[in-house]
Design goal:
Elements (H helix, E strand, L loop, with lengths): L2 E12 L2 E12 L3 E5 L6 H8 L7 E6 L8 H6 L1 E4 L11 H11 L5 H11 L12 H13 L5 E5 L7 H16 L3 E6 L2 H5 L4 E6 L2 E6 L1 H6 L3 E7 L5 H5 L4 E7 L2 E6 L4 H7 L4 E8 L2 H10 L13
Helix pairs in contact: 4-5
Membrane topology: Peripheral membrane protein
Protein name: ABC transporter ATP-binding protein
Subcellular location: Cell membrane
């Protein structure tokens, strides 16, 4: 099986509000797939539809080759799921809670739970109700990973975690991928998935606005360029160059935004004596924010089903 998740024309209406609008998406088996968008964009709605926790208004869903509605029991055995609002019985100790959840899955070796708890620095003897949000999130992560499922579906998995534990989580995701597992993780933070995702999809207001690799998204970002010359230069000489916008010349210093290849700009600058050159890539979070807000990114977003 090459496809872990396939959504086609998926739509979900909530009365007068539409949660998802004609969403089509495919995730290949063995990938880490980042599903990105601001809060309220439709990420959790998509995940709940994939698990048959809610029913679609239109469209189809296939997960691990199965219909989530007709094959829910078989499918859920093969999935590790962390909800965005993970809740368990607060009266139990964390270790008791995880042992109970492991038994529901047919048994999980205690050593596996202890190893994950040690890595995430979770006190298994503490009662769940006494745990901070971050430590409750660790319980949720352990129960999702502990049985080594074929598919991990993680909704805002690093919510409440401190930066060191976030890195441990990303290491766990990389290890899952190396073991052949598929990881589908939602987030509203691009940098959170940049290091581990093979592909990302960006959703805004229930619509898919981009699907691509992180590298391809970065390639669409622009350069912010500053060139220092020995003598003043004419702005008109550079304003006509392809990809050059937001051009300013102050004395012998030129600044501009450059979309695309720098070849023409570099060759034109070389006609003069260049004393300094600085080019800075657009921060990926800024590019991501452009998709969030509906502003025009550096290039037209590419949509696909792969």
């Amino acid at each position: 099986m090459n496809t872990a998740i396939e959504l086609s024309g998926l739509t979900k209406d909530y009365g007068s509000r539409r949660g998802l609008n004609d969403l089509s998406l495919r995730v290949e088996a063995g990938q880490v797939f980042g599903y990105l968008g601001p809060n309220g964009a439709g990420k959790s709605t998509t995940i709940r539809l994939m698990l048959d926790l809610i029913r679609p208004t239109g469209g189809t869903v296939r997960v691990l080759g199965l219909d989530p509605r007709a094959d829910a029991v078989r499918l859920h055995r093969r999935i590790g799921y962390l909800a965005g609002d993970f809740v368990v019985d607060g009266r139990q100790r964390a270790g008791e809670c995880l042992a109970f959840l492991g038994d529901l899955r047919g048994g999980v070796p205690a050593a596996r739970v202890l190893d994950l708890a040690d890595r995430l620095e979770l006190d298994l003897s503490a009662r769940v109700k006494s745990l901070s949000k971050g430590n409750r999130q660790k319980v949720g992560l352990i129960q999702a990973f502990m049985h080594r499922p074929e598919l991990l579906i993680l909704d805002e998995p690093t919510s409440g975690l401190d930066p060191l534990v976030q890195q441990t989580f990303l290491d766990m995701v990389s290890e899952a991928k190396a073991a052949g597992q598929t990881v589908f993780m939602s987030s509203h933070i691009m940098s959170e998935v940049e290091a581990v995702a093979d592909r990302v999809a960006i959703i805004r207001e229930g619509r898919l606005v981009a699907t691509d690799t992180v590298a391809a998204l970065r390639a669409r970002s622009f350069l912010q360029v500053r060139i220092d010359f020995a003598e003043p230069v004419a702005a008109e000489e550079f304003a006509v160059l392809p990809g050059v916008t937001e051009l300013e010349v102050t004395g012998s210093t030129l600044t501009c935004r450059l979309d695309g290849r720098p070849d023409a700009l570099v060759k034109t600058a070389a006609r003069h004596t260049v004393t300094g050159l600085h080019a800075e890539s657009q921060d990926l979070e800024e590019l991501f924010h452009a998709y969030y807000t509906g502003e025009n990114p550096a290039a037209t977003p590419h949509k696909d089903m792969a």
